Amino acid sequence: MLQRLSSIRYTYIRSHLYALFLTLITLLAFLLTIYVLFSPPWLTRMSIFVFIITYLVVSFVFSVYIGFKASGNMKTRIDYLSVLIAQLSRGNYATRIHDNGEDEIGRIGDELNELGEKMQGQVKSLQRLADEKAEYAKSAHKAATIEERQRLARDLHDAVSQQLFALTMMSQATVRLVEKKPEKAKNQMKEIAATALQAQTEMRALLLHLRPVHLSGDPLPLGIKQLVHELEQKCSIDFQVMIDSFERLSEITEEHVFRIVQESLSNTLRHAEATEVTIEIKKYKNELFIHIADDGKGFDPSSQQKIASYGLKTMKERSEEIGGTFAIRSKVGEGTHIDIRIPLQIGKG
């Protein structure tokens, strides 16, 4: 009831009644002044009372009627504005209002129409950007796939393919030496076995790269343990895995850490000739510490070949993408140690 009385229509009626009240007070004061100063015979107290009552009743009726009728057009125009705003809020930006008035309400209607046109244009722009983003994502995925295939093809050609070719040549030569020089043939057979083992190690490392990058919803510790378990079935390396218990990290962080560990193990299989690998992942305050070490042959980190290494570059880039730092320590004959520090933002995976 109170909300209804505060509507535009009743506001108009109240304004007319307020004007009636002020007019009535003014007339009453004017008549009383004439009565006191001049006391004309036609102006008596009874006539003043009757006039005031008659004027009050008639003016009240006219004020209510005129206020009600005069507010009708205004209320209709405001209702149109309200409907337009409601439609815009629901996302129906094609709705327009047609108000030919030249007053403030007409200008508000024109501005709302203009706002609807702008919002409609923005929606079209956002949809176009979304389509373009999807196309860019497809192109980027396609380019990344092609690049990875090319890299694997280079690795196969540079390592496994050449080793298989060497095996073929050595085995043919050994066949010719078996009867003539059996001792030399025996030594070459040992070389063939070593080369075959190296080729097998290279293939395992390349297959490790082809393993799914995503954790498929598994937590990071479980994903790393499963990865290590798979490698233990295929390699003679002794793995030491120590992972503290901690809350799930963000999905992006876990996938990057998993991929870094995967890349590091791939490098170890291909180059380190290690017999033992240690993986430690610990959480301290708001940081995650990752330590990966092997007892392999090591290398000189300052050499140009290692600086440009694809695997090391990838691990460093992945660490930096999630705000972490990447450090590597190695020396010929003393193995390799990788230390990574990542600031944590604990969240649901």
Account of the 3D structure:
- It is a single chain.
- The chain contains 9 helices and 5 strands.
- Helix 4 runs antiparallel to helix 5, helix 5 packs antiparallel against helix 7 and helix 6 runs parallel beside helix 7.
- A 5-stranded mixed sheet has the order 1-2-3-5-4, covered by helices on one side.
- The mean pLDDT is 78.
- The longest helix has 77 residues.
- The two termini are 52 Å apart.
Number of helical runs?
9
The appropriate CATH architecture of the domain at 216-349 is: 2-Layer Sandwich
Proportion of residues in extended strands: 5-15%
Number of strands: 5
The CATH homologous superfamily of the domain at 216-349 corresponds to: Histidine kinase-like ATPase, C-terminal domain
According to CATH, what is the class of the domain at 216-349?
Answer: Alpha Beta
| Gross morphology | rod-shaped
Short description:
The protein is an alpha+beta fold. 68% of the residues lie in helices and 11% in strands. Among the domains are: 2-90, no CATH class; 216-349, Heat Shock Protein 90 (2-Layer Sandwich).
Keywords:
349 residues, Heat Shock Protein 90, 9 helices, 11% strand, alpha+beta
Strand and helix map with partners:
Elements: H1 2-5, H2 8-37, H3 45-89, H4 104-180, H5 182-209, H6 220-234, E1 238-243, H7 251-272, E2 276-284, E3 287-294, H8 304-307, H9 310-321, E4 325-330, E5 336-343
Parallel strand pairs: 1-2
Antiparallel strand pairs: 2-3, 3-5, 4-5
